[in-house]
Amino acid sequence: MPLRASLTALVGRSYTRSVVIELTIESIRVSLRNYQRVVILKEKDADRYLPIWIGPAEADAIAVRLQEVTVARPLTHDLLTNMIEQLGGAVRSVVVNDLANDTFFARIHIERDGSIIEVDSRPSDAIAVAVRTGVPIYVDERVLDLAGVQLNADGEPIDASGNAPSGISDEERQRLSAFSDFISGLDLDDLGETESGGRR
User: How far, in Å, are 5, 62, 93 from residue 17 at the CA level?
Assistant: First the structure.
């Protein structure tokens, strides 16, 4: 059974109730078509993957921490997490909470003085903060239903368009074709089989 939770319960405030699913970082990869970096997130207790394209700087920021590379001076995301801590806050979780116009959105949940502050973020920055603070990474269930990828026994993506929520519009369904094109340009054959750079 996939690990699911109420976003309200996670952050302790009266947000619009939303079911979120915990993810782990599977790897950071490069598209074979355009050499764009991609972070592959995996549903913690199931075999669905969520690929999110990210910039090279953010990919390096995530990989440096996952590979426990020592740097002489704090990187940008180190500075950000240090500032949060010095100002009395504590990062509690990050959530990939939306997908619109082929763009993913995320939130960083910070606790300070007993209250939760919700900060808008790019997913790449939120993930870079999460790996530095050791907090869980979640995704809104609807986002995973829209953009999640399942693989067959040969490691090939399965067309999951039939699994999209019934409330999805024709326009959204058409936009999802971009993900199929994107995913087809990735080398996913060894997902879950061997250790590779950037995998936790």
Answer: 10, 30, 16
pTM of the complete model: 0.73
Question: What number is the average pLDDT over the span 25-39?
Answer: 84
SS3 180: helix
pLDDT tens by residue, 2-24: 556 655 445 444 344 579 999 99
Full DSSP string of 6-39: EHHHHHTS-PPP-EEEEEEEEEEEE-TTT--EEE
Q: Where are the beta strands (DSSP E) in 101-171?
A: 103-112, 115-121, 137-140, 149-151, 157-158
In CATH terms, the superfamily for domain 4-184 is Bifunctional nuclease domain (3.10.690.10)
Q: Are the C-beta atoms of residues 144 and 42 closer than 8 Å to each other?
A: no
CB neighbourhood size of 64 (10 A): 19
